[in-house]
């Protein structure tokens, strides 16, 4: 489907479908909401910056959403859903123009079953709102992104994969978090579908290409008091080994386990005063019951305690979750805009050689960030080496370095769902597109064959 600006008649008819003030065509709004955090990438920035939606619709009701989808299906207009836009590789970018649907206003009152811990929320509700709503009832989210203050639950499920809590409760694709969801298709007229159980997996991390998430039901977990702790050592390998042992032996007592090699901690301006030059850190959220055991274990191995933030209700800043996952890259870019990152898979059982090579590599120089999770019921580690790459050539050098080290990595510098390294993982989601998007208007350009010109440009820097 070629990029074709909407005609004045189409813009007028769409405006008439929306409540006053919810159909936005001013350039500033269209530009701002057409972008997410793809500017982390020197490959994506020049390719996606020029792309701007023809109009933005603030979605406040399912009724309006149905009307807009019906009109777009009739006219063949691409639709791109957007939450808070905190994704890192163009999940919310309208790759082929068309309409951008801002789902943040879709915030109906939360509903919770106090006995079972089932929580139902519409797509625009923020993750922080859900966590703070659940805790007084004795429950908490099984996981949430580091951007939880801004992120919507619909955006997190459509574009994310793991979060704070994944060390204890698993990642999204494990299938334990989402118990049901409502999906809107692009048939004429559009239909709502209630999806339950394992079938929900087909819509998680799918960018909305095979249906728009309208509401979700999550299985919460019993709330616990969480102590925030930062541990430190000048010996990065020793500290990583300590983090690895915690993930292996004590994951059920943790909500967060993150490793940051120096100099990454020096970028964390609000907490920098607590840290020692040249020392890497581990960031933990650990149950109050288990805190003393962690501290005793650290002391016995010569690992320092740099910071302890006792549990409080309600939970308030500073939150260590603001300094993990790709928040680390954000802090690095505030220090030097040329910093970017890669996403690598390290074998949890045989980690030592890969971690040592990453830490010792000289061209480019990597600083290792690692987030520990549970995947398929087993401990896992997601590595995000950070390095300076002011241009695509240096980014390529970093990718080639991982290949030379024999470290598998995912292409996080692509807006495509079927990007390199992810084709098999998302194949069932892509097959479902023809069923839930018969009008072929959802997330057009998120699959490589739908945007061949963009794919061709990207391939030049692979």
UniProtKB/TrEMBL annotation:
PROSITE patterns: FAD_PCMH. One of its GO terms (biological process) is lactate catabolic process. Gene3D superfamilies: 3.30.465.10. Residues 48-223 form the FAD-binding PCMH-type domain. Signal peptide: none annotated. Pfam families: FAD_binding_4 (PF01565). InterPro entries: FAD-bd_PCMH (IPR016166), FAD-bd_PCMH-like_sf (IPR036318), FAD-bd_PCMH_sub2 (IPR016169), Oxid_FAD_bind_N (IPR006094). GO terms for molecular function: D-lactate dehydrogenase (cytochrome) activity; D-lactate dehydrogenase (NAD+) activity; FAD binding. It comes from the Bacteria. PANTHER family: D-2-HYDROXYGLUTARATE DEHYDROGENASE, D-LACTATE DEHYDROGENASE. This is FAD-binding oxidoreductase. It comes from Pelagicoccus albus.
């Amino acid at each position: 489907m070629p990029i074709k600006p909407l005609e004045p008649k189409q813009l007028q008819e769409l405006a008439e479908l929306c409540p006053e003030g919810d159909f936005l065509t001013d350039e500033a709004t269209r530009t701002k909401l057409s972008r997410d955090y793809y500017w982390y990438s020197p490959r994506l920035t020049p390719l996606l910056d020029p792309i701007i939606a023809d109009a933005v619709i603030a979605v406040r009701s399912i009724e309006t959403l149905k009307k807009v989808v019906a009109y777009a299906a009739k006219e063949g207009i691409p639709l791109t859903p957007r939450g808070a836009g905190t994704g890192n590789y163009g999940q919310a970018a309208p790759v082929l123009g068309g309409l951008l649907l801002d789902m943040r206003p879709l915030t109906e009152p939360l509903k919770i079953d106090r006995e079972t811990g089932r929580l139902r929320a519409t797509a625009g509700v923020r993750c922080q709102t859900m966590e703070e709503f659940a805790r007084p009832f004795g429950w908490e989210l099984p996981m949430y992104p580091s951007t939880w203050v801004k992120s919507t639950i619909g955006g997190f499920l459509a574009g994310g994969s793991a979060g704070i809590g994944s060390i204890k409760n698993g990642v999204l694709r494990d299938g334990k978090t989402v118990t049901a969801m409502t999906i809107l298709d692009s048939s004429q007229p559009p239909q709502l579908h209630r999806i339950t159980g394992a079938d929900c997996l087909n819509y998680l991390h799918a960018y909305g290409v095979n249906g728009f998430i309208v509401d979700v039901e999550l299985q919460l977990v019993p709330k616990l008091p969480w102590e925030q702790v930062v541990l430190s050592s000048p010996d990065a390998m020793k500290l990583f080994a300590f983090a690895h042992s915690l993930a292996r032996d004590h994951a059920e007592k943790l909500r967060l386990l993150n490793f940051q090699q120096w100099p990454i901690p020096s970028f964390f301006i609000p907490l920098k005063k607590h840290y020692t030059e040249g020392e890497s850190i581990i960031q933990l959220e650990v149950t109050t019951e288990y805190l003393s055991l962690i501290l005793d274990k650290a002391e016995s191995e010569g690992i320092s305690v740099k910071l302890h933030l006792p549990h409080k209700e309600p939970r308030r800043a500073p939150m260590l979750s603001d300094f993990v996952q790709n928040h680390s890259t954000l802090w690095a870019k505030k220090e030097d805009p040329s910093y970017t990152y890669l996403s690598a898979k390290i074998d949890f059982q045989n980690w030592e050689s890969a971690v040592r090579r990453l830490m010792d590599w000289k061209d480019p120089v990597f600083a290792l960030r690692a987030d520990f999770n549970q995947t398929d019921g087993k401990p896992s580690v997601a590595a995000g080496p950070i390095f300076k790459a002011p241009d695509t050539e240096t980014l390529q050098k970093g990718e080639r370095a991982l290949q030379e080290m024999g470290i598998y990595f995912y292409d996080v510098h692509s807006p495509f769902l079927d990007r390199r390294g992810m084709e098999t993982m998302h194949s069932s989601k892509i097959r479902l597109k023809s069923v839930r998007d018969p009008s072929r208007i959802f997330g057009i350009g998120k699959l490589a064959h739908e945007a061949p010109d963009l794919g061709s440009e990207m391939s030049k820097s692979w």
